[in-house]
Specification:
Number of strands: 27
Largest sheet: 17 strands, mixed
Number of helices: 21
Helix content: 25-40%
CATH architecture of the domain at 35-200: Sandwich
Distance between the termini: 97 Å
């Protein structure tokens, strides 16, 4: 009986609890029609007081907020919030704010910052109104900081313009300036030497310790929420007690790295390693300091030593995986990431590195899961947000991906590389002004990084500003070695080749074709495996007479080496005999083809055309798409014209179907079908415009199929294979040549008519294998090829006499020839001096 009574009480209590939770959940979901904000990152105490309520309760990641809700942060806390639409906010510790009610839905968003500090990045097309006790701020699409204490309000602007005002007056504040407003006084603007010092609390300090004593744990926790002054005080206390405290020195080194004090960072990290040669923390800190000094091999060596001394340290393994991915060794990076995951799957860096490893293999669902797990484990880390943004963009959702990159920026606004990625996202969205601003900020944050210079040059080129684009690309090339903080020597050369290829295209636009050709050769010599460099050479050869075969060869190499991308080769570019004048007809490639700043799942349709006198018109239509590890394109090209004289007409048609698939991150395959047909009269340009053949008619048809393979053995070693089957080639040329005969006594004037027919039919195949080696000491290109063809040539001359007093003649010559050719070659590029 007692047992039944006990279970009745338990069931009753559980039922009440379920009903209560259901009521609370329903109430939270139905509090407002339009959610105005969402929590993106929560560190430390964070509370919300819902509109109409008097009590505060804990808030967490992904909680939604409505108009009238109040938020506050506690001691040692930071919070990131998405204010819908397109505004992200970072709240410092001991801050409080309220989402106030706008007049109408079309009115600006309103919020009231009561105390503390808030960093804003706003892209809302509507204005944003910030209310504080001493001044209000009106903003539209900008980045700024608002600080409120008991005596004043400060507004610091990093981008755009903010109008700060109160009852005593107003002032417009622009980038790099600050406005101070106090009670009863008009706001006053002033210039700042180091405006970003005010947002030091927003920086992200990467972890180096998995465990430590109480003082060091407190210091690490203070760094995790950006309280660097508190962390420094605790670390100084630890070093007073023990000047050789390796973990304290390692944390000091990380602070110096994050604040761009590279010399102190390296000194402190070396001291940490010397103090405890068997501790992983010192080596991890040393790897960051070495990376900041562009010593990538040294950073790798330090992390390998860290894992040797502490093989079960998951943080050291994850950091090693990150470095392997940075130098382009995806296999070693993936192996180290999996080892780190096995040691500690709850480590955020482990999940982030796994996410990037999956992303390089185009395993989008797995990468999304890994990045989301990393965010849950470390909500303040910018790296998983950046990775999540890139994964969403790769999946095809550019807007959602850009939002994640904006969150990464608000989590670490001093990171130049993330700023460059945000500029790329704005560029893809055709928001050029915002893209330009982000590139400028990235250049300011890290003057040694060539990345923003390169992408800004692309932006300026698309805006038809080639001279400015040329300057930015030259600066990018000059700074290329500073890219070592992110890339290996091999990938640095690939960067340089890409930059050289881009600068050559600008030379082409400026009319410096010879200089463009030199840059193209330099690009290929720098990195023979760079598909962009080969594509540039192909386009440079297109402007030169009698370089058609070289152009098609370079274009084929470019296709075989290219990664999965949305940019197809237009059908006509792989043909050698279209007989088009330069810049006549839709034959020029567009600049956009070379600059897919993001590869993402999507479809595209490209159409261009030309029309002119003499019944001239042409079109170039390409449908193409990317889905995960596959890309495809279907193209059609047509050009026709009556020409400028009799029998100068031509009609050209080209069709192609191209499919490429990445079987693994190392291996890709491709297949292409092409059909080309043409009919024309006499197209030869002679000195005498009346000297032409008015009866010549040519017809041509070509059908080919091609298979290709590209495999990378390791960074710097790869092979490409091409097989082309000439299924059918038919050429037929007809010409009637009338000719008067010498007079014969007793006969009327005679003439002969020679009907000439030349025909060619060919079937065959070509196979070639090429190996490319790219090492520090030299580069090597070697290969073998085989060509086999059956060529049937016919020549017929049918002569008739007018009037037919003599019988005509008929001459037929038929030649069947089999052509076989084998070749082998090797080219070495050896730097001298």
């Amino acid at each position: 009986m007692q047992t039944n009574k006990y279970w009745s009480i338990v069931i009753y209590c559980c039922t009440c609890l379920v009903l209560t939770l259901s009521t609370l959940t329903a109430t939270a979901a139905e509090r407002c029609e339009d959610v105005v904000a969402r929590a993106l990152s929560v560190q430390g105490p964070f509370e919300v007081r819902y509109a109409g309520q008097s009590h505060w309760q804990a808030a967490k990641l992904n909680d939604r907020f409505c108009t009238g809700d109040a938020l506050r942060t506690g001691q040692n806390s930071r919070v990131a919030i998405m204010l819908l639409p397109e505004t992200v906010i970072r709240l410092d510790q001991l801050s409080s704010m309220v989402f106030t009610q706008p007049d109408t839905k079309a009115s600006p968003s309103w919020l009231e910052l009561l105390k503390g500090a808030a960093h804003f990045i706003s892209r809302d097309p509507r204005a944003l109104q910030i209310i504080t006790p001493f001044a209000n701020a009106a903003i539209e699409g900008t980045e700024f900081l608002v600080q409120v204490d008991a005596q004043r309000t400060g507004v610091t602007v990093y981008e755009g313009k903010v109008l700060v005002g109160n009852n005593s007056g107003s002032v417009a504040v622009t980038s790099g300036k600050q406005a101070i407003a106090q009670a009863g006084q008009a706001p006053v603007a002033q210039a700042l030497v180091q405006p970003r010092d005010a947002v030091q609390w927003t920086l992200y300090y990467p972890p180096v310790l998995l465990k430590g004593d109480a003082t060091l744990q407190q210091a690490a926790e203070a760094l995790a929420v950006g309280q660097v002054d508190d962390a420094n005080a605790l670390l100084d206390q630890a070093l007073v007690a023990n000047a050789g405290n390796s973990d304290a020195l390692a944390l000091k080194s990380i602070i110096a790295v994050t604040q761009n004090d590279k010399v102190s960072a390296l000194t402190l990290a070396n001291q940490a390693v010397s103090a405890a040669p068997n501790s992983a923390a010192g080596y991890i800190a040393l790897s960051y300091a070495q990376q900041a000094h562009f010593d990538l091999s040294g950073a790798l060596n330090s992390l390998q030593q860290a894992t040797q001394h502490e093989p079960n340290n998951a943080l050291a393994r994850a950091r090693l995986a990150e470095m392997w991915l940075s130098v382009g060794d995806l296999d070693k990076g993936m192996a180290a990431a999996e080892q780190a995951h096995a040691l500690d799957p709850t480590l955020a860096l482990t999940q982030s590195v796994l996410g990037f490893a999956y992303l390089t293999r185009i395993k989008i669902p797995e990468s999304l899961d890994a990045f989301n797990r990393a965010i849950m484990l470390d909500q303040a880390a910018p790296l998983p947000r950046l990775g999540l943004g890139l994964a969403k963009i790769r999946k095809g959702d550019l807007e959602a991906g850009r939002e994640e990159i904006e969150i990464a920026v608000i989590l670490d606004p001093g990171n130049s590389l993330i700023r460059s990625y945000m500029g790329k996202a704005y560029y893809e969205e055709k928001r050029d002004k915002l893209a330009a601003t982000q590139y400028d900020m990235a250049k300011e944050l890290d003057p040694n990084d060539p990345t923003p210079w390169f992408y800004d040059a692309i932006r300026k080129q698309t805006e038809n500003r080639p001279v400015e684009a040329l300057h930015d690309l030259q600066e990018s090339i000059k700074l290329n070695d500073n890219r070592a903080v992110y890339r290996s020597r091999l990938e640095l050369d690939a960067d340089l080749a890409t930059r050289s290829a881009s600068i050559a295209r600008i030379y082409n636009d400026l009319g410096f074709e010879q200089r463009a050709l030199v840059e193209g050769w330099q690009s290929v010599n720098t990195d023979p495996g760079n598909f962009s460099a080969h594509r540039l050479l192909a386009d440079s050869y297109a402007a030169l007479p009698r370089h058609e075969i070289a152009r098609v060869s370079e274009l084929l190499q470019s296709q075989l080496l290219q990664p999965i991308n949305l940019n197809p080769v237009q059908p006509q570019l792989a043909e050698t005999n279209l007989s088009l004048l330069d810049n006549v007809g839709p034959s020029d490639p567009s600049f956009l083809e070379f600059n897919p700043l993001f590869t993402r799942n999507r479809n595209a349709l490209q159409l261009n055309g030309v029309a002119g006198s003499n019944s001239t018109w042409g079109d170039d239509l390409v449908y193409n798409g990317v889905y995960n590890n596959w890309s495809w394109s279907v193209g059609q090209f047509h050009y026709e014209s009556d020409g400028y004289r009799d029998n100068n007409d031509q009609d050209q048609n080209v069709y192609n179907l191209f499919v490429q698939g990445a079987l693994t991150h190392k291996t890709s395959i491709q297949a292409e079908l092409r059909h080309q047909e043409a009919e024309n009269g006499d197209l030869v340009q002679r000195f005498d415009p009346d000297d032409f053949l008015d009866t010549q008619r040519d017809k041509e048809k070509t059908e080919t199929a091609r298979l290709g393979l590209h495999h990378k053995f390791n960074p710097g070693s790869e092979i490409i294979v091409s097989y082309i089957n000439l299924h059918d080639y038919d050429f037929d040329s007809e010409l009637n040549v009338p000719q008067p005969l010498p007079p014969i006594p007793g006969l009327p004037p005679l003439s002969s008519n020679n009907a000439i027919d030349i025909s060619t039919s060919e079937k065959g195949h070509t196979a070639e294998i090429q190996y490319l080696y790219h090492g520090a000491a030299f580069k090597l290109v070697t290969g073998v090829g085989n060509f086999d063809s059956d060529l049937d040539t016919g020549f017929t001359v049918d002569t008739t006499i007018e009037p037919p007093v003599f019988p005509g003649t008929n001459v037929v010559i038929d030649d069947d020839e089999e052509v076989k050719h084998k070749n082998a070659y090797a080219y070495a590029y050896i730097p001298w001096g």
